[in-house]
Design goal:
Two copies of one chain form a homodimer. Chain A has six helices and three strands, in the order H-H-E-H-H-E-E-H-H. By secondary structure, chain A is mainly alpha-helical. Chain A has a single domain, classed as Winged helix-like DNA-binding domain superfamily/Winged helix DNA-binding domain (Arc Repressor Mutant, subunit A, Orthogonal Bundle), CATH 1.10.10. In chain A, strand 2 and strand 3 form a beta hairpin. The radius of gyration of chain A is 19 Å and the shape is elongated. At the A-B interface, helix 1, helix 2 and helix 5 of A face helix 1, helix 2 and helix 5 of B. Chain A binds a DNA duplex (20 and 20 nucleotides) through helix 4. Chains A, B: It comes from Gellertiella hungarica. Chains A, B: Keywords: DNA-binding, Transcription, Transcription regulation. Chains A, B: It holds the Pfam family HxlR.
DNA sequence: CGGAATCCATATCGATACTG
DNA sequence: CAGTATCGATATGGATTCCG
């Protein structure tokens, strides 16, 4: 039996998992899969991310050794982001998970509908509670 | 080229990924790997989770078709939780990710130390800012 | 262009208390 | 035992503004 989630490092592993679960981190990793991208190009491709969050996400990924930040000292400034080998190695299990998610979205949707109709739709859509 | 993260379902997939990244959901799935567990037993094994969060996590996982909730109408009440086939199928890619996380924790730690010493430790430990 | 800083709304979560 | 309900602290994230 694998024991890499035993108490001692459980929190640490969980911490990494959370990064993967982070909405933007995964998208950034996906987008940078095979090419380096500039800040705003990355932002445009992801879509819906604020510049603040993209900055924060990139900083964290950079600190964790997932992405590489390269500044070209031009005018105007040009900054390129690319995956490091570590980042690329993360890409694979993430892709597997993405594949699973994509394949099972219908199952999840069906399960939700079944659950909601069994327990009352109003229970989950709790914005309908009156005064 | 796989396109399961194309714009249309990108958000949906991301949503599933977030569930995986959810601190407690993964731990619950791990704990329920091969056996059914009762509420408090599950809580004890996870450790550090409030009863509120365990309830919420289990409800969500149940709604998504990941876990099965079985109530034995005894006194006192006895409720058992177990993974559904869908939940078990999620276990595999999650395990792969957990394995990656465990293997690469040292790399991440080293990357962080390098980053911090390069950019100034005070920058990341920003609790030291004076009045 | 890329990013830092500030402000503010909301979401998340833990602690606590009460219930069938 | 297995929850539900409420409350308050904190984390998260968007919008905006300013700067090199």
């Amino acid at each position: 039996m694998p024991n890499y989630y035993e108490p001692c490092q459980c929190g640490r592993v969980s911490e990494v998992l959370q990064r993967v679960g982070d909405k933007w981190s995964v998208l950034v990793i996906m987008m940078l899969g095979d090419e380096a991208l500039r800040f705003n190009e990355l932002r445009r491709r992801i879509g819906g991310i604020s510049q603040r969050m993209l900055t924060l996400t990139l900083r964290t990924l950079e600190r964790d050794g997932m992405v590489n930040r390269t500044v070209h000292p031009t005018v105007p400034p040009q900054v390129e982001y690319a995956l490091t080998p570590l980042g690329r190695s993360l890409w694979e299990p993430v892709e597997a998970l993405g594949k699973w998610a994509h394949q099972n979205l219908p199952n999840i949707d069906r399960a939700r509908q079944a659950y909601d109709s069994a327990n009352g739709v109003a229970a989950s859509a709790h914005e309908a509670e009156e005064a």
